[in-house]
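Predicting holo structure, beta-L-arabinofuranose bound.
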Amino acid sequence: MTNFSSANSAHLAAKFRPPSVDQVRVGGFFGPRIETIATTTAHTLLDRCIAAGMLDQVDPDRPNPGLRIPFQNGNDTVSTQMFWDSDFGKSIEAAAYGLLHKPDAALEARIDEIVDAYGRLQDENGYLNSWYQRIEPGKRWTNLRDCHELYNAGHLMEGAVAYYHATGKRRFLDIMARYADHIASIFGPGDGQKRGYCGHPEIELALVKLGRATGERRYLDLARFFVDERGQRPNGQHYYDREARERGRDPSDYHFATYEYSQSHIPVRDQRHVVGHAVRAAYLYSGMADVSTEFGDGSLKPALETIWGHLTDKNLYVTGGFGPSAHNEGLTFDYDLPNETAYAETCAAVALVFWASRMLGLGPDRAYADVMERALYNGALVGLSLDGTQFFYDNPLESRGKHHRWTWHRCPCCPPNIARLVASIGTYLYGEAQDEIAVHLYCDSVAELKTAGVAVRIRQETAYPVEGSVRLTLEPEHAAEFTLSLRLPGWSPQVTIRVNGEVLDPAGVEEKGYAKLTRLWQAGDHIELEFAMPVQRLYANAKVGVDQGRVALQRGPLVYCLEGVDNGEDLNALVLQPQSGFRCEVVDGIGGLPALVTTGWREKSESDHLYTLSAPQRVPTEIRAVPYHVWDNRDDGEMLVWIRAEADQ
Ligand code: FUB
Ligand code: ZN
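Done. Tokens:
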């Protein structure tokens, strides 16, 4: 067993850290979703991972499955994958959060079996990767650019930390700490060490989690090494060029043509644009933000803040998804936000939640929390069906009726990613600092936090996001002075704050979109927040050609869409009237959220001719919108986010 100093030891000085998942008990809107993950999705993920052959690949005592090439036998699900360890890692992580919500001995036993297989697979020296140990032995650390070796390690580390927090069992954590120590012996600035880093960022943020869970600074140092080294040219040579030559390959023979694909084209501190593969990008920026927080390293901030602006001002879908192109699963050019062909991978929106939450490590700032909430409730959550068994990979904002969730995929990255995010949502609600607690998201919940040396229980009572009222009750173990920072969502045009019944002027206490309340807090103190939650019409910048003449509907954090099941066919024949109001309506099968109903027009052509000299006639009709993330949970049909709208005069 590895010896660790005490967890959260003082030398890991950071500003705001998220609470661990076990500190926040979540009910309300996310409660039933977590329950579904705990009781259904967690088992489904393990079932499907194992059915795909992952345990055969990992377990050294099972027959070696060997290299199975996708499509060779006409079935693209029959393939071994070099990133399978990551899918197992994420599935274990999701299941671990499920265990925190609801103990399940059978689920725990299944995880133990997988952990045991990894334990038996692990090399004497600590190395652990089922692909390079069983499928392609002899090729370790030869192709960091393409082969996910450190990415896999990162996801297994995250799974190990989650499982440790959920069960207190050390085995998986010890296995992964040993592997991290081995990685630290291979990679670094020392003589004979490799100055490489993964083509798919992930290990950086995972090492920070491992460092926080174990209290070991060396894991943070390794995370910082990988961040610092990315895109450098030691001795005038990019690491990926060098390793390609060492493999006997021409570095210019690269499918994605540019190292922008993996955000390793230039050193990270020099980067100013969001580029390349979307998930890689947001994972990298998450790691950079973590390193910046943990080391108090302000030199990463200009890059992080400018890249953030470039994403959110020019490249983000209204759903919080990003990366329009299937070719590179990522970015193309500014304002390129096609709707029907949007790739907007579920993992990218999940990763944006990770990144935004880590930007909050530097201090409460609504610019990040608002985007975190947008990505969470829309572009990410859409990836998981209400029954917890079906998953979206790509997320168009318009469909002619043929786009549906699938059961499994030969690249099953999204299902465990959205499941682990939702099941761990409690950690995204808060930030804890030395003398401040930040409330970033609202959801009915009870949190056991700590600040100013005092344990503080915070109870949130709310029907958010159905309604905009939230009541928070504080129970510090004894009276203590600290700051409570409450996010005032940017979408709300009117906010009321009452502390112990007394109304406060939000403008008098607001800083970067948070109400900062500093006082001697006593048990029973309560705060009531009222966020006006009108239905809002959002317009896209004129440079987004495809959205002109159209609006997206939003109420609170939820972006809405039209579905064929409510509105019939030809959703593009529907037009919203200017000024017409909306009423909320209960509709079955959309997770208890309100549908929005208004009066609009349906356009009808006079004849069946393709072109005529007269415009289609407009007939009044009812238009019903439902939250985007619940679409495709009922009957098949069209879907549309950007709705044609007659402009206000
Ligand atoms: O490569 C691993 C994962 O699979 C990526 O994060 C996703 O974009 C998908 O390509
Ligand atoms: Zn994915």
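Residues 345-347, 413-414, 417 surround zinc ion (ligand 2) (CB under 6 Å).
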